[in-house]
Design goal:
Blueprint lengths: L4 E5 L5 E2 L2 E2 L3 H10 L3 E5 L8
Parallel strand pairs: 1-4
Antiparallel strand pairs: 2-3
Protein name: STAS domain-containing protein
Organism: marine metagenome
Pfam families: Hydrolase_6
């Protein structure tokens, strides 16, 4: 049985502007601990600093 892969939006889910959103890093750590695949995606047009 294959593991699911999660597509996780960055802007507004993990970050709000320059600030981390509470629980984001812990959620990624949980996915890693369960060997779940994930890809970080975004549709923002802003350049990273």
């Amino acid at each position: 049985v294959s593991q699911p892969t999660f597509f996780i939006d960055i802007d507004g889910v993990l970050y709000d502007g320059p600030n981390l959103i509470e629980g984001g890093p812990e959620a990624l750590a949980c996915l890693r601990a369960h060997n779940s695949g994930f890809l970080l995606v975004t549709n923002t047009t802003r350049m990273s600093s």
